[in-house]
Amino acid sequence: MAKDKQIFYCSECGFEAGKWMGQCPSCKAWNSFTEHKVTGKALRNGWAGERPKAVRISEVTSAEESRIKTDIGELDRVLGGGIVPGSLVLIGGAPGIGKSTLLLEMCRNLTGKNVKTLYISGEESLQQIRMRGERIGISGSELLLLSDNSFENAEEVIRSAEAQVVIVDSIQTMETENLPAAPGTVSQVREITARLMVLANQLKTSIFVVGHVTKEGTVAGPRTLEHMVDSVIYFEGDNTNGFRLLRAEKNRFGSTDEIGVFNMTDHGLEEVVNPSELFLSGRPRGASGSVVVSMEEGTRAVLVELQALCCDSSFNMPRRTAVGVDYNRVNLLIAVLEKRGGISLSGADCYVNIAGGLRVSDPSADLGIICAIASSFRDRAVPEGFVIIGEIGLAGEIRGIRSALRRVKEAVKMGYTDILLPASNRSRELDELTGVRLHYVSSIQEALALI
Ligand code: TYD
Ligand code: MG
Fold it and tell me: What is the rounded radius of gyration, in angstroms, for the C-alpha atoms of the chain?
């Protein structure tokens, strides 16, 4: 038998080291290393079965056709078009956000299509799962349930059940006998994930693993597993409203730009087919500092409200706060606005916020940010019906953006009549659109004069 080995893990980020360290070199947390004894047996079970041989790429069959659709459109899109057989997907999110609900809804759809599905819960009893199932209308189905914390038993059930899709809810509650550590510790979570990976590969079963993340990141969480699995999907939102965003952080089988939008109701999660409507609901009419910008989320353009508030500062150094947009970008845009737009903000605090808890990383929101700040500073509202799109350069020039046509079409669909666009995006397709006035601008002076 191999000699016992000592491994130290950072309990914050899962960094692995051969010796104890005071500060984690990866996440810089202090005093976060804990020791784990790894026995020879647990070190790695290796790949059982035959050893793979090299094959020609042309002989490899594409997994594209064999994807299993979950029939939850938003989930399918985030997964890249459905579940890939033999993949391991991690669904992360804060406790209570709706991960179990989403996966159970997926199970309902899959069993409805005669896809054999197994749901393993280490958190809830069978009765609790059934009760939740009744709320989302699953009780009569063929879904297989297992409520157990022992991973060895779960592994056996997975091997014998011959299910096409398996859900393990959650990784933190599963425990393997091979390791002395408590469930939820980094070593347990990693060992179990590694063994699930082997199972998914050998049985060609798609496995979904649920992982809880806390805001502080103190629990040994999914962050440590991101590199081990095929796809990492985060389910986000705050508990104050029902909106939930599904976002792929990593996806070996699709794009990571897609988001899925859901609304939590009394009978489970509902897909939000028209996110623009959702993010613009409750927008104040005629208020200064509020503008509508367009963001690109994968293959969709989504309209969101961007708000700015400028007020006299009582500090020597005025405050700048950005929520949902990049802080440094806002500072840069404020500098451009001061220098090229002739507005002095050195005595004003500025707050910029995206409504609805979204994050915009797209530079096409630049012009919107500038217009919102200027509008709030002058306390003059941007006229109704405007959508503002454009990237800004340091000289105050407005640069072209991607997918102008798709964004304009979305704005027209949502009933907007006026669109501020970079002059370089002018095209024949755009000019042919009817029912919308396109205002092409090439500098921020022009844009500010217009609104
Ligand atoms: P859950 O899926 O248990 O969260 P997670 O698995 O991520 O911890 O979701 C629990 C929350 O969802 C809980 O606060 C109740 C709410 N909920 C509804 O509002 N409606 C429903 O139909 C269901 C099933 C849950
Ligand atoms: Mg749960």
Answer: 26
> Residue 32: which of 49, 15, 53 has the closest Cα?
15
**Ligand 1 binding pocket, CB closer than 6 Å:** 93, 95-101, 132, 135-136, 264, 266-268
CB burial string 157-179: b at 16+ within 10 A, e below? bbeebebbbbbbbbbbbbbbebb
Q: Whose Cα sits closest to atom 20 in ligand 1?
A: 266
pLDDT tens digits, residue range 200-224?
Answer: 999 999 999 998 876 654 445 556 7
Token pair for 332: 């840069």
Going by C-beta distance under 8 Å and a sequence separation of 6 or more, which residues neighbour residue 131? none
CA distances from 261 to 77, 133, 158, 164, 212 (A): 11, 21, 31, 26, 20
**Res 239: pLDDT:** 66
**pLDDT tens digits, one per residue of 117-165:** 999 999 999 999 988 888 888 866 789 999 999 999 999 999 999 899 9
Would you list the DSSP string of 197-254? HHHHHHHT-EEEEEEE--TT--S--GGGGTTTSSEEEEEE--TTSSEEEEEEEEETTS
The pick from 241, 263, 264 for probing ligand 1's pocket by mutation, whose C-beta has the most ligand atoms within 8 angstroms, reads 264
Residue nearest to atom 8 of ligand 1 (CA): 96
